[in-house]
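>> Question from a student workshop board

For tomorrow's exercise we were told to take the sequence and the ligand below, predict the bound structure, and bring the output to class. My setup keeps failing. Could a helper post the expected result so I can at least see what it should look like? The ligand is thymidine-5'-diphosphate.
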Amino acid sequence: MSFDKVRIITLPKFLDTRGNLSVIEGTKDIPFRIERTYWIYDVPGGEKRGGHAYKNNQEFIVALSGSFDVVLDDGHERRTYSLNRSYYGLYVPRGLWRVMENFSTNSFALIVASIKYDKDDYIYEYREFVQSAKIN
Ligand code: TYD
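>> Workshop helper replied:
Here is what the output should look like for this input. Compare the format with yours to find the bug.
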């Protein structure tokens, strides 16, 4: 899998003096049906999350509060995407190694996923990932 499909997607934004509103609708705003939502919060300074690849799961990641970096790796190169606004996010297709790091204090990462939690969908070994990236 390459970076071809990776992209920052700007979400609909309804500006209002009462407060702004943004929305993610599966298959309309992002290219998959949403099967699962999880979030990462209370990350201690310097900690990293992720450090794995998914065989099938696709994700869309939004910094609902604060900022953090998503580092993607296709087995050849690494690219860093900084997220710091609640009205856009990063689309991460299947088959990329991903680490989340550099979390600011009180940051809040929202992640919507295309499949239910399945530990067999994870590749935890970087070397195994590089091998699978060569085949696919
Ligand atoms: P994991 O995906 O390994 O976190 P990280 O993003 O740091 O790699 O998940 C951490 C723990 O949370 C693990 O014990 C499994 C559990 N978990 C679920 O039960 N459901 C989920 O949807 C996710 C993402 C994690």
